[in-house]
Design brief:
Strand order of the largest sheet: 1-2
Strand content: 15-25%
Number of strands: 4
Radius of gyration: 15 Å
Shape: elongated
Structural class: alpha+beta
Order of helices and strands: HEHEEEH
Largest sheet: 2 strands, parallel
Number of helices: 3
Helix content: 25-40%
Length: 100
């Protein structure tokens, strides 16, 4: 799951009215402290068993080529710039490089 505000809010809503007996959460990038707090507050039934950050917010095409699946003619808006930043951050973490 990509850790966007919308996704975390939907997940928090799900945790307040759970459909399953336990949840194992896997995020494709870094989860903010605020998002962790929001999920913890929503998990009233203590059904979340684990949370993992997998750093896979990009698509590997070949060993040295990747894409973020963004249309090439896209206008650079704030949400798109955030998506590019997050994708590059995940790529660096997956390659075990320390982003500065």
């Amino acid at each position: 799951l990509r850790p966007t505000r919308e996704n975390v809010e939907m997940l928090a809503k799900e945790l307040k009215e759970p459909m399953f007996g336990e949840y194992h959460l896997f995020f494709s990038n870094v989860l903010s402290n605020d998002s962790v707090r929001m999920l913890a507050q929503a998990d009233e039934f203590e059904l979340v068993k684990q949370i993992h950050e997998c750093y896979a917010d990009f698509y590997a095409l070949m060993p040295h080529t990747f894409t973020l699946s963004i249309a090439p003619n896209s206008t650079l808006t704030t949400p798109l710039a955030d998506r590019v930043r997050d994708g590059l951050f995940a790529l660096l973490l997956a390659l075990k490089k320390k982003p500065a």
